[in-house]
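Task: encode each sequence below as C-alpha cells.

Item 1
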Amino acid sequence: MDFGITGKRALICASSAGLGRACAQSLSSEGAEVWINGRDSARLEVAAAEIEALTGQRPHTVLADIDTSTGRDAVIASCPRPDILVCNSGGPRPGRLHDWTETAWSEAVAAKMISPILLIQSLIGGMRERGFGRVVVITSAMVKTPKLPMALSTGPRAGLTAFCKALAGEVAADGVTINCLLPEKVETDRLAQMTRSLARARSIDLDEARAEMVASIPAGRFGRPGEVGDACAFLCSDRAGYITGQNLQLDGGAYSGLV
C-alpha cells in the first residue's frame, strides 16, 4: 500500500528514542522527509544514523527542548512548513497525591498540555492553507482509564485530548486531520522504568514484575515501538484522510470499555 506521503515534511517531537523515534523511522520508511528532535546531541545523532541505516534516508536533527518557548521556536525555524506534526513527550514518574505540589502540577500542565497545543497552534494555519496536514499526538491509555498514581500525566493529557478533539472538527474541511495515539505497555525505557517501580513497590524481582504486567494484556505480550510507529504513519497517510478526532488504543486489547 502506498501511503502517498513521499516527500512530505514530517516534524516529530521528542524523537531521539522511544515512541517518537519509532514514528520517525516509520515515516522515513514511507518516504517522508523527517526532522527529529531531542535534548541530547549524542543520542540525537545516534538515532539519525540508525534511521538512515534502516531507511536509506537521514533525518534532519534539531537539538531543542520543546517544553520551552526557545526550543519550540528552534524546531519551527528548522521545519517551518511541515505537512506532518507528531507531538510526543516523556511522562512524569508515578506518584502519590500528597507528593504533588502546585509547582509539580504547573510544570506537568506546561509540558504535557500547553507545549504541544502551542506547537499545533503555530503550524496548523500553514497546513490549512496548503490543503493537507496530519497531526498525531501521542498521549497515553491512561487518558481513557485514569489511575491515580499516573494523574500527573493523565490530567494534562486529558486536557490536550479534549483540545485535539475540538480542533479536529474545525480543520477537517481544509484537509487536515488530528488524531491521538493512546499506547500502553510498549517496550520502551518508560516501560522498563515502570517495571522497576512495580518491582520495588511489591518487593518482587523484575521477571515477576514483567509477568504480572503482561498478565493484564489479552495479547499476552508487550507492544513493540514499531507497531506504534506504523500506526502513526498510517494516520499520516493520504489513505487516512477520513479519520480525524479519534483516540486510537494501542494496548493489546487491555482496554475493556466499549467506546
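Item 2
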Amino acid sequence: MINAWLPTKACQYLGNNADFVHYDRALAAGWPIASGVIEGAARHLIADRLDITGSRWSVPGAEALLILRAVISNDDFPAYWNFHIQAEHRRLHPGYGKANYKLAA
C-alpha cells in the first residue's frame, strides 16, 4: 500500500527542483543520467562488500573500507600509499631531517 503523502511529496519535490530535472536535455547532450551510474557505483563500492551475509560494520570501519575501495577503484592507490608512508614517517620521526640539533655536552 502506498502512503497517502507519497504522491504529494513527490510532486512537491519535482516542483521545487524543476530547473534540475531536464533529463531530455541531458540525454540530448550525451550526458549520463545519474541513476544508473550512481546505482552501479553504489553496488560496486558499497553493496558488494558491506552486504556480505553475517557481516557487521561500525560506522568508522565501514567509512574506512569505503574510502579505501574508492581510492583503489579510481586507480589512486599508489599515490595514496606514498602519501600514507610519508605522513607516517613524519608522525613517527618528527625531528628527522632537521639540522637544528644542539650538542648536550
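Check on item 2: Residues 34-50 form the longest helix (17 residues). Helices lie at 5-16, 23-28, 34-50, 59-73, 77-92.
End of task.
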